[in-house]
Write a structure and sequence with these properties.
With 314 residues, the chain is of the alpha/beta class. Helix content is 36%, strand content 10%. The strands form 3 sheets. It has a 4-stranded parallel beta sheet with strand order 4-1-5-6. It has a 4-stranded parallel beta sheet with strand order 7-8-9-10, with no helix packed on it. Helix 7 runs antiparallel to helix 8, helix 9 packs parallel to helix 10 and helix 10 packs parallel to helix 11. The mean pLDDT is 93.
């Protein structure tokens, strides 16, 4: 998907509610439809800047877009081929900087009451971030998207009819990118319907997404996310191979001396070798002479924006 003129793509990440059907009562679908109404109604410019009164979006829902097993638990040979091909492409969809990620992070009220499960099968009551596939999809979406493209529809009030209002309500924030090893370690504790079948696949999808997005990104923006030193330390581990990055935006966070020291150590160690501009405006570390001296000494050709936070009113 391109910035303008291309077909916008929305990837939906949600917990399956039954093994045979992810949304048998339509709760996820109704929520998604209400949000999509605001997106469809939003005018969108084409490649020449001309405004159109309605937008068209492609929506990726795994249940609808991937061949599912029949009532006997089987796929045809052709369906197996297509399913495998589609499954192996999920990293491109969920991690692309210009696709949107809509997360549904809550289970229906009263779940699993009223839902039907085969004999011997128990409801998966694990929360969104404790489910392996949801965790993987969210982690891929956190890599390089801007904040307005990662939404949690659990925060949708239903009171706004404008796309901007939905984004303001539902912006999900972002956790820092994880290294391969960090992701694999956390994923191992998550729940899958079939750990044997899915754990390795999800691990490989994230590895490919991480390697491509982090190594190719020329601009990385992690501003106004409420991140402190712990998040920046994690980020720096992930950015050791971000050699194509020229601009790193971290303004309006809560980064202190320890976070600034982690950035300086990353630079001294050869990480972010192509970085030319670092935006640290409105972070506490900008008022620390020691932190700023350490950063300024890390790379001679690096421009650093470091205006201190504005004093609180009153």
């Amino acid at each position: 998907p391109s910035r303008s003129g291309g077909l916008p793509v929305i990837c939906v990440s949600y917990p399956w509610l039954q093994p045979d059907h992810p949304d048998p009562k339509g709760t996820t679908l109704r929520l998604l439809a209400r949000v999509l109404e605001t997106y469809i109604a939003q005018p969108r410019p084409d490649a020449r800047g001309r405004q159109y009164p309605a937008s068209t979006f492609a929506v990726f829902l795994d249940f609808c877009c991937l061949h599912q097993k029949d009532e006997d638990g089987e796929r045809t040979a052709n369906e197996r081929t297509l399913f495998s091909r589609a499954l192996g492409s999920l990293d491109s969809l969920y991690s692309h900087p210009h696709t949107h990620l809509f997360k549904v992070s809550t289970l229906p009220a009263g779940y699993p009451a009223g839902f039907v499960f085969p004999d011997g099968v128990h409801a998966n009551t694990a929360a969104y971030y404790d489910r392996g596939w949801c965790f993987c999809e969210s982690a891929m979406g956190n890599l390089v998207k801007n904040a307005g493209k990662v939404l949690d529809l659990a925060n949708f009030s239903g009171k706004t009819d404008r796309q901007g209002g939905v984004i303001n309500e539902c912006k999900a924030g972002r956790q820092p990118p994880m290294t391969h090893a960090e992701f694999a370690g956390r994923l191992a504790s998550k729940s899958f319907n079939s750990t044997a079948a899915d754990l390795g696949t999800a691990t490989e999808l994230y590895r490919r997404a991480f390697d491509k997005r982090i190594s190719e990104a020329k601009t990385l923006g992690f501003s106004s996310l409420g991140w402190g030193d712990e998040e920046v330390v994690q980020l720096c581990r992930a950015l050791e191979q971000a050699d194509a990055c020229r601009t790193l935006g971290l303004h309006s966070n809560a980064i202190g001396d320890r976070g600034a020291a982690a950035i300086a150590a990353c630079l001294h160690g050869g990480g972010l070798s192509g970085l030319r501009w670092l935006n640290l405006n409105a972070n506490p570390c900008t008022t620390s002479w020691m932190a700023m001296s350490e950063l300024e000494g890390a790379r001679d050709d690096l421009d650093i924006d470091a205006r201190p936070p504005r004093p609180a009113p009153g």
